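Review form for a predicted model. The reviewer records the input and the model, then writes brief findings.
Reviewer: anonymous (R2)
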Amino acid sequence: MNAVFAVALGGAVGASARFLAVGAISRALPGFPWGTMMVNVAGSLIMGLLAVVLLEKGQFGRFAPFLLTGVLGGFTTFSAFSLDALFLVERGRMLAAAGYIAGSVAASLAALALGLWLARRVLL
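Model under review:
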């Protein structure tokens, strides 16, 4: 499959999944951008797992454009994260904004590290 087509198709899948997940989480937990945060953390965990399986172990590397750049690029939402953080700041919710920023970054980095560790120790 052409790499550009693979990325575009994966992006459509990932963006659709993000739209559904963020909507469901936001309805269940209103008042704070939990949906965006949870999608970023889950995407980081999956990115860590797939980075090892697809890139480090050299298995199925041909699927990396579709899965890593496309699906996870469409699924994770750093631009939405930035917008949510600035909306909290604009609403004067500085403590919530700081918690959201620190929590999102720390949890996403930890999830990616966990994904790498799981893939290296458990999956392969």
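Findings: Helices lie at 3-28, 34-56, 64-75, 78-90, 94-123.
Further findings: The two ends are 26 Å apart (CA to CA).
Recommendation: see findings above.
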